[in-house]
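Q: Could you predict the 3D structure of START-like domain-containing protein?
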Amino acid sequence: MATAEGLSEWFADEVVERGDDFYFSWNGGPAEKATLIRYKPESFVRFRWEEDEGTKYFFEMTIVIDEITNDLSLNITDFCEKGDEEETRLYWDNLIENLQIKLGAA
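A: Sure. Here are the predicted structure tokens for START-like domain-containing protein:
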């Protein structure tokens, strides 16, 4: 969940990992830097974009397994500017759809 290889499968076209710094690029554009700020293997990963340094903003992906049904879900926490909520929601919906296709779950 927090490897460059895994993230490049569905999150970004290319991901380069250098220590706690990850460089994400899409469609051949310039890389955007995010720093890994928390990580628990097979549970969650939290990043902060370089532009959000000095703020409390982050984005987090958490895997949750229902204790009763054993259903697996991916919860996303992200911050965006006021008025960008719908665009951000669509962005994550598309990424999750790509992940489901990769996993054969769609």
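Q: Anything worth pointing out?
A: The chain has one domain: 4-103.
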